[in-house]
Amino acid sequence: MAGKEVEVRFKVFRFNPKTDFAPRWQEYRVNVDRSTTVLDALLKIKEEQDPTLAIRYSCRQAVCGSCGMMINDKQMLACFTRVLELNSNVVKVAPLKNYRVIKDLVTDFGEVFQKERQVKPYIIRHDVEELLNPTGTYKQKEEELLGYIQFADCIECGMCSSACPVSATDPLYLGPMVLNRAYRFIADPRDLGFEQRLEAIDSEHGCWRCHFAASCSAVCPKGVDPAKAIQLLRRALVKRAVLGISSSKVSELIPMPHIKGKLELPKGWQ
Amino acid sequence: MPDKLEADVLIVGSGLAGLRAAIEAASSDKSIRVAVLTKVHAMRSHSVAYAGGTAAVLYPEEGDSFDLHAFDTVKGSDYLGDQDAIELMVRVAPQEILRLEHWGMPWSRRPDGRVAQRPFGGHSFDRACFAADKTGLYAMQTLYNTTHKYDNIEIFHEWYVTSLLVEDGEFKGVTAIDMKSGEFYAFEAKAGIIATGGAGRLYSFTTYGHSATADGLAMAYRVGIPLKDMEFIQFHPTGLVPQGILISEAARGEGGYLRNNKGERFMKDYAPQKMELAPRDIVSRAMMREILDGRGFPGPNGLDYVHLDLTHLGEEVIDEKLTEIKMIAIKFGGIDPAREPIPVRPVAHYTMGGIHTDTYGRTPVRGLFAAGEAACISVHGANRLGCNSTMECLVYGYLTGKQAAEYVKEKGKSDPSPELVLAEERRVFDGILRGGSGEDPYTIKRELQQTMSDHAYVFRDGDGLSRALKKVRELRQRFGTGRVADKSREFNQNLINVLEIDMMLEVAEVVLVSAIARTESRGAHYRLDYPKRDDANWLKHTLAYRTADGPRLDYIPVRITRWPPAERKY
């Protein structure tokens, strides 16, 4: 809990590409205690010293993925980093690398969201009616769940793609965040969409582009290991190419008789 | 004149209810154009943060039933919930669990591969479906991912809606700022669904993310829709001191104890049967009683607390089932829950009240629905049970999405009058951005949050509430039109914050006026000066209408169908 306050210097990257000729570093001094996170400190700056500072933030508990940024030159979540644990009198804060800056610490995720669409990040199946109006549950055993759950822990903070040396040089590379998302679905026994994702992942800007620097996994705040997801994607592609095995999935539907489909709803306001 | 955009169904908010509604509207007809406007990136709405789960009757053959679930909810609501709506909701809920399951939700499973359930406060059967303790993250991901399947859904990330366009009692669209460019748009639509969540940031000690500033409630209120039952704010028993981050009820669901400074499990004196798993209002009052009577521990900034003890559960249970809680305790509290108790205190957690709707989620404005926490149907009455809010989000996301899709089929193009749009543009850009006046908005916000925390918390009384109202009205004066220091267009968060604080002041006044009027204690609204429930005079919903002189209150009856009010004991 709270405790003694110490003054810390913050050097914050400031830039509005629409109006500024070049970025600049601006200094602020903030009092922090042992529970103050970097996000708390930045919000203190914004609310008490300089309301023009732009920061992306929301949940403040490391689950929404908003506040990834470069803190003392490393990709970190601002809300998940206590100022004093940095052991540094000067804290340098800058926007995530490999993304276009919108303003100050806020970067543009538009492109990475577009790339994510390319890998069809959703369950693909043929029983379309069952998907919309279920009559039971697909059976899933604990060990099947363990095959993909780690990769589902991704909060899309985008720090992995920021740390990736390939993403830095190839703007078309899908990047670890998107490839991880693709693998999460491919590894899910309920999904039958492997073939439909090949165009995106089995390409020069797909998983073969990775050269296994593994810096993505090193910066992940949730322990997801996207580098492993990329390796497993490659294994799946090799198995398909060499052995002709693309999918051997079955998921049995366990009927649940009391789940009834139809209900009466009023029409409009009259 | 601002640029125009168009959609058939326009959804404000991208949490569980908003995304669920988008999928339903889009999947019912591929020709319906659905727009989701959200002030954050869509997958970052605060629904990601819930750990606990979603209630639903999955295994009637084992003894659970719709009647039982409905009754638990009615009783939990302290008989203020509308029973027809509650019955509808619990009947639709199981389908929603399965839909999520089919769309990729990693529900925790039974050994036979079916969806597992666990106990939760106030439920008489183990009916909380969960996915480890990251249910919210996974559910949001499942829905957000599934929206990509539909080419007729377009998500407008980081678009801030400033007003609803309503004419002649009909919804015509919204005005919004694209935060990235700062451009202002008129967004025309045939039907709208407000799914902007609750009002938790009215309080300083809160589990809500920074984005829960009650925008949707204020905007609806401003176009003449009443806000219902706003005096009912839920205080969750276990907010981590001092940050307010939620320690999920899962901690007690898995067997955690609450202890006072004598080491006693004090719940034995308040709810001897349910103990720590009594409903939230009861546990929160018990904790505050212990703290006020000197059996708590002293905390920073007056945040005195009790202990949430998980040490007896053992490392294995904590590591397997409570990983998120462990992470929060270690990272934010510096406490290993397997070795030390966690300091907790009741924390603003849920807004039972909200935008007035009928049983089906329709507001009094034609073409406009509300869903999830922003709405008040009311299915939670005076107190919500754990896992019933996410159920409401899914069920009412589904119901409103479906009805909106139906409604727009027979509806011609929407045509909001240009005067309405221009007036809003002048208000925001000439009135506030360029010409704003008043004191520093962030100081006003902090004082507002402190006032609400001091006087509209777990225990309330007429005096304190009246003082708070006076203070909020004074803050309103000092706030002026709102002062913006940042004059730039691009990502002007300072402007957005000022618009938010303006809305918070509006909603806070409604909470206080409604709370002052209700001279009884029911559910989460506990008046020290009126400690008894009073069915003869107060078995009714509060409706607050906006007038130039502040909220005007009116009341409507509770819809009671099968369960006559009885004393609420656990």
Can you tell me about this structure?
Chain B: It is a peripheral membrane protein. Chain B: Residues 8-389 form the FAD-dependent oxidoreductase 2 FAD-binding domain. Chain B: Keywords: Cell membrane, Electron transport, FAD, Flavoprotein, Membrane, Nucleotide-binding, Oxidoreductase, Transport. Chain B: Its cofactor is FAD. Chain B: Pfam families: FAD_binding_2, Succ_DH_flav_C. The complex is a heterodimer of chains A (270) and B (570). With 270 residues, chain A is an alpha+beta fold. Chain A has two domains: 6-107, Ubiquitin-like (UB roll), CATH 3.10.20.30; 110-253, Fumarate Reductase Iron-sulfur Protein, Chain B, domain 2. Chain A is built from ten helices and nine strands. Chain A has a five-stranded mixed sheet with strand order 2-1-5-3-4. A two-stranded antiparallel sheet of chain A has the order 6-7. In chain A, a hairpin with a 2-residue loop joins strand 6 and strand 7 (106-107). In chain A, helix 7 (175-186) packs across helix 10. The longest helix of chain A is centred in the last third of the chain and has 18 residues, at 226-243. Chain A is globular and about 60 Å long. The N and C termini of chain A lie far apart (57 Å). With 570 residues, chain B is of the alpha/beta class. Among the domains of chain B are: 239-346, Flavocytochrome C3, Chain A, domain 1, CATH 3.90.700.10; 418-535, Methane Monooxygenase Hydroxylase, Chain G, domain 1. Chain B is 35% helix and 18% strand. Chain B has helices at residues 16-28, 66-76, 83-102, 135-147, 215-222, 250-253, 280-292, 314-321, 323-333, 388-409, 418-434, 441-455, 462-479, 493-517, 535-538; strands at residues 3-12, 34-38, 54-55, 117-118, 128-129, 153-157, 159-167, 170-178, 183-194, 227-228, 233-240, 257-259, 306-309, 342-351, 354-356, 368-370, 375-376, 540-545, 552-557. In chain B, the strands form four sheets. In chain B, strands 1, 2, 6, 7, 8, 9 and 16 form a seven-stranded mixed sheet that branches. In chain B, strands 17-15-10-18-19 form a five-stranded mixed sheet. In chain B, strand 1, helix 1 and strand 2 (34-38) form a beta-alpha-beta unit. In chain B, helix 1 (16-28) packs parallel to helix 10 (388-409) and helix 5 packs across helix 14 (493-517). The longest helix of chain B has 25 residues, at 493-517. Chains A and B meet through helix 1, helix 2, helix 3 and strand 8 of A and helix 3, helix 4, helix 9, helix 10 and helix 12 of B.
